[in-house]
Amino acid sequence: MHSRGSSNRLYNSGGGSAFRSRISALVLAMFATMATVYVAGRMWQEAESRVYLIKELDRRTGQGHSSVSVSERLKIVACNEKDIAASKREGFVSKEYLGNDDTRSKKRLLAVVGIITTFGRKKNRDAIRKAWMQSGAALKKLEEEKQIVVRFVIGKKDDLEAPEERSKKIKFFFARAVESWDAEFYVKVNDDVYVNIDALGAKLSANLDKPRVYMGCMKSGEVFSEPNLKWYEPDWWKFGDSKSYFRHASGEIYAISRALAQFISINKPILQVYAHDDVSAGSWFIGLVVTHLKEGKFCCNSWSTGSVCASVLFD
User: How does it sit in the membrane (predicted)?
Assistant: First the structure.
């Protein structure tokens, strides 16, 4: 009897252990399933984000290639520019040249020129219209015959033109211009500069074969760390012990090619701005494979035959 009872107790104990084991296995299976569903959901969300980024890059550059590398994207743009030029020489116009986006012109412009100004400088704008920009039918003729679009970039009405705000305005101009017009070059000009449109067009046309062009009156200079000085740079410590700016184009006028304008458009939320807009623009191209063209005809402090610009004081 004792032996039979002991056997029953052993049997019942073993059955309870087996039941608990099955419960534990079921719980683990449920957790594993939930974890699998969670991970799959996160991977799906990340995949959707990657697809969105790829489509956004393709939309901005007008390409069908799936690549999120900025350097590769610029290479693709440069290669297609060469293909377009070759097609034009042979008398063909590619679909990419015509463009599928409604915001793109049927024929690529030579340049889009943005004149940076403010609400309080209407006299400057009026003087520019009379001197070289023109207006109405004459402005339209300039666009049709020379393939150069000229527009004022004013900004917000309450814009006090703090240095960093001016840099942001220029960044916005390049981004908006490349999204609105399909051009070979995008040109920034101050509102106290006279521009020789014919000379500008000739200089730009002579450099159509160069990839990723950054053209202007190149310079560098001292970085001022004292707040009481006119050209004070709050981020002076970023420029090293020598306190010298990197090479960049003078802010009076400079031009960048389409690939660089596209780079600004794609990356504008994370591009640093400094106290001076010309330094800001130059900083955006550091680390990229860019052709820096030091062009003396873009130096506006002196006028000579073939000069692109001249600094003027409007009354």
Answer: Single-pass type II membrane protein
Whether 147 is in a domain gets the answer yes
- Residue 306, domain extent: 110-311
CATH of the domain at 297: 3.90.550
Q: Kindly report the length of the chain.
A: 315
Q: Look at residue 178 and tell me if it is in a domain.
A: yes
Total domains in the fold of the chain: 1
| Residues paired with residue 214 on neighbouring β-strands, in sequence order | 256, 292
Does residue 281 lie in a domain region?
A: yes
Angle at alpha carbon of residue 266, lines to 263 and 267, rounded to 5°: 80
**Is 153 within the bounds of a domain?**
yes
SS3 120: coil
C-beta neighbour count of 14 within 10 angstroms: 10
